[in-house]
Amino acid sequence: MTLIQLRYATVVAGENSLNDAAKKLYISQPSLTASIHQLEDEIGVELFIRSKSGIKLTPEGAEFIGYARQVLEQYELLDAKYIQKKNAKKKFSVSMQHYTFAVNAFVEVVKRFGMDEYEFAVYETKTYDVIQNVKNYRSELGVLYLNDFNRRVLEKLFSHDEIVFTPLLECGIYVYMAKSNPLSAKSEISMEELQEFPCLAFDQGERNSFYFAEEVLSTWNYRQLIHASDRATLLNLMKGLNGYTLCSGIICEELNGDEYCAVRLKRDEKMTIGYIARRDAVISSIGREYIAELSKYKALN
Fold this sequence. Notes:
Layout: H1 3-13, H2 18-25, H3 29-43, E1 48-51, E2 54-57, H4 59-83, E3 90-96, H5 100-113, E4 118-124, H6 127-135, E5 141-146, H7 151-160, E6 163-171, E7 174-178, E8 188-189, H8 191-194, E9 199-202, E10 225-228, H9 231-241, E11 244-247, H10 253-256, E12 260-265, E13 271-278, H11 285-294
């Protein structure tokens, strides 16, 4: 296995066909095909599925490409520092469920470290993608929650993917809504009172299982339910339709403004918010700073 083969494989993974990848690499398509076949034979893993419609990664291939990218990134850092004699930017990436406070913690870290020495990436995305991004080294850390309902399923997935979950805080369940909602002035809200308003949930795509839902009580029989793919849309629906979502209650006016509020839900359920990392990973100094920033947020009473 060579660095050239790893580079070829990662480029192929980002293209729709071997022909497109060959053009990008400035080599012939037969040469590229032969190199990929040699790599697959050596490691004993089929990396790509070839069909008339193009080429795509196998599940084992996706895992391999994650490792390959990490090796190539480390090599580029070594080459830049010791061969090219230039300062290459360090990288830090985090994936998260749709938590404003996790984004705000990321903002604080970026401000503190600056972008002269670091290249940053943040992915506010679906639950399954948060896990896969950490598994495949796309992100160093992931932020998500566990509760009594999803814990067994997600912990089984963590174990299979060599991922460790570390809890940061435990909190009750809150109703997040616009202050214009008729229920916003209440000190507590019951599920029965919410039946008159649309529940807003983040769409989980192909992995739209109850266990991957970002909102607790995902199996509740909601009278009105709207799925959306991003936080900005959810906020607009809260204003326009008096919609609501269920969350930790930790909100950041710095990013979302002061037109929204969190009201305690009359339920006993708890959720544990924490971060995930690969079991074999050594968390970087900036990763530790991000975790420290997350730890500053406290659960509401």
